[in-house]
Specification:
single chain; alpha/beta; 7 helices; 18% strand; globular
């Protein structure tokens, strides 16, 4: 059995690089897409003293949530590395200015590692971006891509049942990616792992 990790990040913009606020991940069988484990970690930002109202509206997270359940970035990274167990990590991320589209949300993690003086830690994991594969699938099956289908919007874009929660909650977004993978697998497509 080949295992892969699907993950998603939520981050806040502030002074310096994007700062991680939430990290969600699924561990799954790369052939059957069966989920064997989940991870959902809230992270207390260090450079942003209060979450912007726009971020709260987007994600549903509040400063109180982070104060009650958030951990340091270092702790979140440690939990993520332990969860991943060295398996390849896949996210769905459109290119953003100054980031690597190939790394997807791995670029957010790299920025946070660098900001915390932990840059050497990045090489412990292998990151891939599913966005180019999804874009090819959209074109192949005649979906008109308008330039803005985030990971959490895949289910809506493909007309699939929605996972529980809402877009821009990391685990919701990861389950949305998984639903898209299952949709195209059922059409006979080879998965991108």
């Amino acid at each position: 059995m080949k295992t892969v990790i699907l993950f998603d990040t939520e981050f806040v913009m502030g002074p310096g690089p994007r700062e991680l606020v939430r990290l969600g991940a699924l561990k799954l069988d790369a052939e059957t897409l069966a989920v064997s484990n989940t991870l959902d970690v809230l992270v207390k930002p260090e450079r942003v003293s209060e979450l912007p109202v726009s971020f709260i509206r987007l994600t549903g997270l509040t400063d109180q949530d982070l104060a009650a359940k958030g951990v340091s970035f270092s702790e979140a990274w440690t939990r993520f590395v332990a969860f991943v167990e060295g398996f390849p990590c896949y996210s769905h991320s459109q290119a953003q200015a100054g980031t690597s589209v190939l790394l997807g949300d791995g670029a957010v993690l790299r920025e946070n590692l660098m900001a915390h003086g932990m840059g050497a830690e990045f090489v412990k994991l292998e990151f891939h971006n599913l966005f180019p594969w999804f874009l090819n699938m959209y074109k192949k099956y005649g979906y008109i891509y308008s330039g803005n289908v985030s990971s959490g919007a895949i289910t809506t874009f493909l007309g699939l049942p929605m996972p529980s929660g809402h877009e821009h909650q990391s685990l919701f977004d990861v389950y949305s990616i998984l639903a898209g993978l299952r949709f195209f697998k059922e059409k006979g497509e080879t998965l991108p792992f």
